[in-house]
Amino acid sequence: MAIDLLVIAPHPDDAELGCGGMLARAKAEGYSTAILELTQGEMGTKGTVQERLAEAEEAARILGLDYRGNLRLPDGGLADVPEQRQALGQALRNVRPRVVIAPWSADRHPDHVAAHHLSLSAVHFAGLSRAALQGQPHRVERMFFYPGNYAVTPSLLVDVSAYIETWQAALLAHKSQFYGEAASETVSLAGVEARRALRRAWGNYLGVAYAEPLVSLQPVLGVPW
Predict the structure, then answer these.
(1) Which end of the chain is more exposed for a tag (fewer CB within 10 A), N or C?
(2) Which of 127, 133, 12 minimizes the C-alpha distance to 65?
(3) DSSP helix, strand, coil percent of the chain (3-state; round to 5)
(4) Sign (positive/negative) of CA torsion 136, 67, 54, 186?
């Protein structure tokens, strides 16, 4: 397998929340796309594991993903430790993404912060010829980060105006999270509207309707793909 754009997500729905419009745009432009969840979200207030996995599959269908996987690491227990680094590093060798987009480091959720550091380590680990992993070493071309619950200073804004409805449909496919009693200010229909409003605000900087922000640790010359 070889994927152009892989988004690493701590829990089901995090990839859609952070950069679902970007995934929809990349797919529409002919690039292969994927989401890899680290956990099943089993510690979440709402939804069973079975419900959340089924919802993730429906969201994948809406986005037209080429691959969606789940490492089933412990929700609430993500950490940059050898066994988790090995699991993610092996997945990266299997999927062989050209570009990886992972959570940004500043976030109130400990799993999101841990996923940032774990992703950085695993991307490096997957490229080491002597790493105890199956398959050939794999080095990604670029790595970007998407925001979670805190504001970011973006390195790049991606116009997703033509894909905002696809983004919202994919996000709302996670019905257990966004319908019914709100689990938090972000896990609710109001939270979806707030995320849409943020995309509208970022779009103002580009002079377009909607945009999604990314952070990079390297200079950026254009869209990730």
Answers:
(1) N
(2) 12
(3) 40, 20, 40
(4) positive
Distance CA 50, CA 82 (A): 28
Provide the 8-state DSSP code for 39: E
Contact between residue 212 and residue 22 where contact means Cβ atoms under 8 Å apart? yes
- Answer whether 145's CB lies under 8 Å from 212's CB: no
The first and second tokens of residue 200, run together, are 């509208």
Nearest to 117 by CA among 149, 78, 146: 78
Give, for all 225 residues of the chain, the pLDDT tens digit: 899 999 999 999 999 999 999 999 999 999 999 999 999 999 887 889 999 999 999 999 999 999 999 999 999 999 999 999 999 999 999 999 999 999 999 999 999 999 999 999 999 999 999 999 999 999 999 999 999 989 899 999 999 999 999 999 999 999 998 887 766 767 788 889 999 999 999 999 999 999 999 999 988 878 888
| pTM score over 0.85 | yes
Query: What whole-number distance in Å separates Cα of residue 144 and Cα of residue 123?
Result: 12
Q: What are the distances in angstroms from CA 177 to CA 166, 174, 198, 224? A: 18, 6, 20, 29
Q: Which residues pair with 142 in a beta bridge?
A: 99
* CA trace torsion 96, 17, 41, 190 (10° rounding): -170
Question: Residue with structure tokens 């690491």?
Answer: 73
> In whole angstroms, what is the distance from residue 126 CA to residue 132 CA?
9
Please, is 156 exposed, middle or buried when counting C-beta atoms within 10 Å of its C-beta (0-12, 13-18, 19+)?
middle
